Amino acid sequence: MLNKKNIALFFFVIAVSTLFLGFYRNQWRMVLPGRFREFQKDSQSLVMGRLTVSRQSGLFAYAGLLGRVDVDPYATTDVIDDVQYDTYLKEMNYSTYSVYFSQSGAQGFVFGIIDNLSPLPALENMRIFRIIASALLALVLAYFLTWIFTEFGLLPGLVALITTIASPWLTVFGRNLFYITAFFYLPLVGLLFYMARNNNQNETRTDRSAAFVVFGAVLLKCLFNGYDFVLPSLGAVVVPFIYYAVRDGWNLKKFFRKGLWIAGGTAMGVVASLTILAIQISIVLGSLNSAVGYLADTFSRRTLGDPEKFPEYASSLKVSVWEVLKIYFEGGEVFGHLSVRFYQVILAFLLFTFIYFIQRNKLKDFTNIQKSGDALVASTWASFIVPILWFSIFKGQSYVHPHTNFLSWYMPFTILGFAMCGAVTQQWIYLLRRSI
Predict the structure, then answer these.
(1) Of 94, 111, 126, 350, most Cβ neighbours within 10 A?
(2) What is the pTM of this model?
(3) Three-class SS of residue 69?
(4) For the residues of 107-161, what is the DSSP string, one character each?
(5) Among 117-131, 136-150, 158-172, 392-406, whose mean pLDDT is lowest?
């Protein structure tokens, strides 16, 4: 017999299956095959280099950090990248290792364990790694989409699922072994999972546990894919926080108390990850001061640092915030093979928000629907602020990475925005049928 739980499970299975096929093999052809195959091959080569080192020198060699083997300073970037793949796939030995200090490289460590234990050839192991990366992202996003389905209904869930499948950005990131994109969504989904099940439990215990959940999720995110998209990923915890605050009508005391616990858990997760990374770097460089100096310089040149101090990054540091924002409003593709830009989608979301408030008073006899609608609109536009802050604060990095940073819009602003469009349409249909 079909009940609400079984229907949600069926939706979850469909979501996992369709998303996985898109992430792993570009099944729905949301991007051109060449782009899908070659996307961020250079970044992924860092993992290939790490796997070669782990196989030959052990998992803890060079403190487990990612890097590239046998780098020829006179070779082109493409040649250097190809060396990483060839050396790993042909199971060759390496002579030198250039360490990448910007993240802890937990993905390389875990894949190294699998690679060392597996009796299969390197090419088959690489397929296994891609399956793992694709499946993890499919599972995490499917949970989020199933939450949308159970909270708002069939149409919002389907609209959110279809538009997520149609995203060329999620498709190309889905199986990448450097990013392991699922971990970008772990703070959001971890807190959402906890709050959905414990929102009405003992307040003090719930607040502390929520902070611990966020701490663990943030720590794992930073260990597995470093500080790429760190602000959108960490800022996404605002979605479950704002949603349940608005839906359940928290008073200011409760709002600020819970907010401080969650912010504290987030901050401690970042601090713990930076401490681990600093220790790893100091093992390689031989000095904790050198590690701290490297991290400080890296943060400065990727944000609002002095162009004179970093002349090789001067153009990105001198560019205005508005010029960077224009790139991300006017560029990119929201759907595969369709010329729909992000500013157009944002305008559509504004229109549906306007429609919602026009028809909101007609829902006053249905308090739960009205409260859920208010909460969805509030959390959607709260999530809009997060990528804007990322593009603005990390403008140096954003200016030179338009080939990747459009993913920030999906953390999870556009996913929620499309769900909102589905919810408003569903409410309009309901009101129309009711009036008839």
Answers:
(1) 111
(2) 0.94
(3) strand
(4) HHHHHHHHHHH--S-HHHHHHHHHHHHHHHHHHHHHHHHHHHHHHH-HHHHHHHH
(5) 392-406
Is there a contact between 332 and 322 (Cβ–Cβ < 8 Å)?
no
* Residue whose pair of structure tokens reads 């794992």 in the numeric block: 220
User: Element (H or E) spanning 192, and its range?
Assistant: helix 186-198
**Distance between alpha carbon 153 and the CA centroid of its chain, in Å?**
25
**Cα separation, 92 vs 86, whole angstroms:** 8
Question: Given pLDDT bands bounded at 50, 70 and 90, which one contains residue 432?
Answer: confident
Structure tokens at 242: 């704002």
Rounded Cα distance, 176 and 169, in Å:
12
DSSP letter string, 378-393? HHHHHHHHHHHHHHHH
> Is pLDDT above 80 for 204?
no
Domain assignments of the chain as residue spans, ordered by start:
40-128, 185-236+251-302
Give the residue from 163, 181, 213 showing the smallest Cα distance to 413.
163
Nearest to 51 by CA among 63, 66, 30, 38: 66
